[in-house]
Write a structure and sequence with these properties.
Strand order of the largest sheet: 2-1-3-4-5
Structural class: alpha/beta
Distance between the termini: 88 Å
Largest sheet: 5 strands, mixed
CATH topology of the largest domain: Rossmann fold
Shape: elongated
Helix content: 40-55%
CATH class of the largest domain: Alpha Beta
């Protein structure tokens, strides 16, 4: 029969929502925890006891480690002051492995705590009840594995059909229900999609320079640019390089869905089992039902570019002997070229890439300097013949105009909302306190939008004014080049070049012959600076 219950004892109740409960809720069967709570209240009343505390678990954890509420319950019963724990069924307490099941059983046995369910009251100190309890946990574990296998098979089948199985959509899309079928797919959000294309363009090609070339931008600089434009990510205040990395590597943007991009592995660390997640290079990829935002060509070019990126080492020198220091960079890996003595008796100096394994070939410093000055003169002559009046790419211009339109639309909506708030006060719908709270919230939002709109308008105005600034830059540029030739001071030469150049990219793949070192068979791409736009 088991020992009788103590009507004046201390009793707790444990509630946990299972996968089956969540599926039932989706079909309109009501909130699970509320129904189970009422069921346990009724059970306690029938047994003549009172529940003093409820423990509600809403996470779907497999192990005790993943379920903080059951951890708290076990801690609270460990001192032996609890007479019993009520649960809808014994399986709600544990579905972990045999180690977790043994932990649950040990806590209840050592604390002499009853497990009370509508079907049976388990006394862990009773040999038969203990076996029955352990068998129930074992069957629960088997049921969990069966359900999990069925769910995984269903998810794999959905991915193979091109459906979107994640609970959230990547930036640029929204998650929509598939008509006349089970599952979800993605639908393009035009305004966000335009921004996604803009990000890929900036990373792959960069911003357009005054000579018509493009200067690439890294993820950090792209984040700063997006924040400066007042463009917000989906679920954060500011853009981060890690967010952009995930976007740039996401196959969803070329109309694909994946399975197994991230894997989970269990490890033992200091006697505790932990789960670690890692990238899987051999994940499966399938054609999706949703439309792509980015072309395959651009996407895979970005992937190759990301693989080739390396962090450039920082090189400093107390005594400057290289007029091109910090200016000329490796066209292969991006590292600043360094000055090094040649191995010949002539004692001349080379510029070389310091990165180990880089295939860029060195060349005489004097030859690179000569080629750099020649390139600057050629660029200047090209500007004098025809200055291409293009300040920024059409992609950026469209994004800025779109952002401006969104700000203006939001401001209009807020002012209308403010007017309605005044009307509701006059009609007596709002009390004075409610009105003051509402008007304060709306006013603060208006001030924030107006500030961001003002920043965006200043940026657009600066871009428009830069055309005039560039035209005044040509004569100044010519004067600086003349000053470079007329001085012998290495530090002054370096400062002069840095005043007109962002950088120059050097690439050489073919070695010169023994007596042919004066052959400038290398590629040098210059990136002149534009003057700052007037504020």
């Amino acid at each position: 029969m088991g020992r009788p219950l103590n009507p004046s004892g201390t009793y707790y109740a444990y509630l946990r929502k299972s996968r089956a409960d969540r599926e039932a809720e989706l079909h309109g069967e009501g909130e699970t925890l509320l129904r189970h709570e009422q069921m346990l209240h009724d059970l306690a009343e029938t047994l003549g006891i009172v529940i003093s505390k409820f423990y509600r678990e809403i996470v779907s954890g497999e192990t005790i480690q993943d379920r903080p509420v059951v951890q708290k319950l076990l801690q609270d019963i460990s001192n032996g002051t609890c007479d019993g724990v009520l649960a809808v069924e014994v399986e709600r307490l544990a579905r972990g492995d045999t180690s977790d099941q043994g932990t649950i059983a040990k806590y209840f046995k050592c604390s002499d705590t009853l497990i009370i369910t509508p079907m049976k009251i388990y006394d862990p100190t009773d040999e038969y009840d203990e076996e029955y309890f352990e068998f129930g946990l074992f069957m629960s574990r088997r049921e969990y594995k069966t359900i999990n296998r069925r769910i995984q098979r269903g998810r794999i089948a959905s991915v193979q059909e091109g459906k979107w199985i994640a609970s959230t959509a990547p930036f640029g899309y929204e998650r929509v229900k598939i008509q006349d079928s089970k599952g979800y797919t993605l639908q393009i959000v035009p305004e966000q999609a335009e921004l996604v294309r803009f990000i890929f363009h900036l990373y792959l090609y960069g911003e357009q320079q005054p000579d018509g070339s493009y200067k690439r931008m890294g993820r950090f600089l792209i984040c700063k640019k997006l924040d400066a434009l007042g463009i917000k990510p989906a679920r954060a205040k500011n853009w981060s390089p890690s967010t952009l990395k995930d976007m740039l590597q996401n196959p969803a943007y070329i109309g694909k869905v994946c399975w197994g991009r991230e894997l989970e592995k269990k490890i033992m660390e200091d006697g505790t089992m932990k789960k670690i997640r890692f990238k899987n290079p051999d994940y499966q990829i399938y054609e999706a039902l949703h439309a792509p935002i980015i072309s395959d060509e651009i996407f895979y070019k970005v992937q190759e570019l990301m693989k080739s990126q390396q962090t450039a080492p920082v090189v400093s020198s107390k005594i400057l002997k290289n007029p091109l220091s910090g200016i000329v960079k490796c066209g292969i890996c991006g590292s600043p070229l360094t000055r090094a003595a040649s191995n010949t008796k002539d004692g001349y100096y080379n510029l070389r890439c310091p990165s180990r394994g880089c295939k860029n070939i060195s060349a005489p410093l004097s030859l690179i300097e000569e080629k750099l000055l020649q390139s600057l003169h050629e660029w200047l002559e090209g500007c004098l013949l025809e200055w291409k009046h293009e300040e920024y790419s059409s992609n950026e211009e469209r994004v800025m105009k779109l952002s401006l339109k969104n700000y203006q639309k939001e401001l209009s909506r807020l002012y209308q909302q403010k007017e309605r708030t005044y009307d509701l006060l006059e009609q007596g719908v709002y009390s004075t306190d409610v009105f003051q709270n509402r008007i304060k919230t709306i006013t603060e939002r208006i001030q924030t939008i107006e500030s961001e709109l003002s920043n965006l308008q200043r940026t657009m105005e600066s871009n428009r004014q830069s055309s005039h600034a560039r035209n005044t830059f040509i004569p100044q540029f010519q004067g600086v080049l003349d000053a470079y030739v007329s001085t012998e001071n290495i530090t002054v030469k370096n400062e002069i070049l840095k005043s007109i150049l962002s950088c120059a990219e050097y690439t050489k793949t073919e070695r010169n012959g023994k007596f042919n070192r004066g052959n400038a068979n290398f590629k040098l791409i210059i990136h002149p600076k534009l003057p700052k736009s007037p504020s």
